[in-house]
Amino acid sequence: MNGVSKSRLRSEQSEPARPEESNQTAMEAEINEEMSFLKEPCLSSGTSLYDHLFEVVHFALANRASSAMIAFEETSRMLQERRHFCSNARTRSANNANSDTFHFALKVCQSLKHNDEGVRSLDMSEEDACGDGGDILDVLQVTARCGVAVPQDEAFAVALAIKDLASNRALTRIRFWGKVLARRRDYVLAEAELTDDELDRRVDIRGPAEQAELEDPLNRKHEAASRRVASPRT
């Protein structure tokens, strides 16, 4: 009985939560939720509104323009253009881009549809076609979070092109390098290594000087292969 009365006394003496503390906790939770929303990366650009605003404000404070409002708008547009690796004059129509990407993906899918062994798998999560290169879509998603973005539909087209390279060429360990913007078409670069069978075949058909050059470790391990990815005309 003594123990029960002591526990009741302790519970009565314990102070209730202060309204200020509960309000502060609720405010912190709300702020954290809003910050999480602002930091969500955009699928098309790979950056978040929080990072974009931070860059714009930092640039405006560093340059101290006469009109902060005009500087904010111009800086925001400039950073968006720089982030997408093209100016407003080169910005493509979304409908045309999606249409061209669809036709390219359809063509690659048809080329991958059948072979002597049967139906090929188009599962991008498999590592058999790209060696130990892993899932190119996951890699592009990681680079998008770092601010180097490739549109999602174009990333899928790049993955299909690398799958096509690994399936139809004597290449292995294919790695995506980046994108080069040209006047008429854009180019996607990939590095690859020749398979051992292909190296042996080339050694057999080449002369002594070419064999020595091919057997050089740098040439054996770093023979680049690039494949043009059909992009819409500018």
UniProtKB/TrEMBL annotation:
On the tree of life, the source organism's domain of life is: Eukaryota
Q: Where in the cell is it found?
A: Cytoplasm, Cytoskeleton, Cilium axoneme
Where is the segment annotated Disordered? 1-25, 206-234
Q: Which GO terms describe its cellular component?
A: radial spoke
Keyword DNA damage included in the entry's annotation: no
Q: Which UniProt keywords apply?
A: Cell projection, Cilium, Cytoplasm, Cytoskeleton
Q: Where is the composition biased (Basic and acidic residues)?
A: 9-21, 217-226
In the UniProt record, does the keyword Cytoplasm occur? yes
Annotated GO biological processes are:
axoneme assembly; cilium movement involved in cell motility
- This chain's protein is named Radial spoke head protein 4 homolog A-like
